[in-house]
Specification:
By secondary structure, this protein is mainly alpha-helical. It is about 85% helix and about 0% strand. It starts with a helix and ends with a helix.
Length: about 50
C-alpha cells in the first residue's frame, strides 16, 4: 500500500514536470509566434507596393 502511494506521488510529480515549458519549447513557441505576426505584415507591405 505504501509502495502504491509512493508510485502515485512520483507519477503526479512527473506529470506536473512534463507540463512545464522548458527553454527549448519557449524558444520554438516564440519563433513560431513571431512568424505568425510577420506574415500578415509582410503581405500588407507587398500589396501596398512599398516592398
Amino acid at each position: 500500500m505504501v509502495n502504491a502511494l509512493q508510485l502515485r506521488q512520483e507519477a503526479d510529480r512527473l506529470i506536473q514536470e512534463a507540463g512545464k515549458r522548458g527553454p527549448a519549447k519557449q524558444a520554438v513557441e516564440g519563433a513560431y509566434r513571431n512568424q505568425l505576426l510577420q506574415n500578415p505584415l509582410l503581405r500588407s507591405i507587398s500589396r501596398s507596393g512599398r516592398f
